[in-house]
Design goal:
about 170 residues; Aminopeptidase; seven-stranded mixed beta sheet; 7 strands
């Protein structure tokens, strides 16, 4: 497995795996499959150009990805949000998510991010345990954060303080 930054040239593979993620796990993402499938591959290329994303590859196949969105305003530029973590089920349990998250955290630290935020859907215990193992701590649960097919889902808000030495 190779973990590396993604760029616009990876847009086709990224878009395909992202659509799979949105279709298979609609409660895990704020984006929806129905909306994103209408977007052209150029939209995926723009997303990869606008934000740092990492992908986990085995040979030429993309198995997972995660992105980082940094705050731009002066008062909260010390913060960034982990977005869009996904690992294909056939690669689960092989350390892919852990490696993707480690690459993201290393990049965030190297670029002066002091506070990492993320949300995880309540009930997704595997993801929550991954984030807790990386040092993230819950600071609250947002009830009714998203709705999928009429069902309400809460989101657990988590934080990792990068201002302390690793």
């Amino acid at each position: 497995m190779i973990v590396r930054m993604l760029g616009p040239a990876d847009a086709t593979l990224y878009r395909s795996l992202r659509l799979r993620a949105l279709r298979e796990h609609p409660d895990a993402f704020t984006s929806s499959y129905a909306e994103d499938r209408e977007q052209p591959v150029e939209a995926a290329a723009q997303r990869l150009a606008a934000h740092p994303f990492w992908g986990a590859y085995r040979h030429a196949e993309l198995y997972g990805f995660v992105g980082l969105e940094r705050e731009l305003r002066a008062k909260n530029r010390h913060k960034a949000t982990v977005m869009g973590m996904y690992v294909a089920p056939e690669a689960a349990g092989q350390g892919v998510a852990r490696a993707l998250l480690a690459a993201l955290v290393a990049h965030a630290r190297a670029n002066g991010v002091e506070s990492l935020l993320l949300t995880v859907t309540e009930g997704n215990d595997r993801a929550r345990r991954l984030y807790e193992a990386a040092g993230f701590r819950s600071f609250g649960v947002e009830p009714d954060a998203i709705r999928v097919a009429g069902q309400r889902y809460a989101k657990n808000h988590m934080h990792l303080d990068l201002s302390r030495a690793p």
